[in-house]
Amino acid sequence: MNKPCAVSVKQYSLSAIIELSKIAQLARERCDPQDSATLVHAAGNLIGLIETDILAVIYREYPELDDLA
Q1: pLDDT surpassing 90 at residue 31
Q2: Is residue 68 in a domain?
Q3: Which of 1, 9, 56, 64 has the most CB within a 10 Å radius?
Q4: What is the model's pTM?
């Protein structure tokens, strides 16, 4: 992956994590406990996949893009 592509993918990935986090928060605040648990679990799984399957790949190739390093 070239660096400009990696930068764009990183930005979209972080945006997706923000939106998934909003889903989890909304579920905690407004859904019944069983639905909330299901939604929070699903959002967490998706966030984990984005972290491991997209962002980690980018950061291995371009460590300077990792803001937390």
Answers
A1: yes
A2: no
A3: 9
A4: 0.92
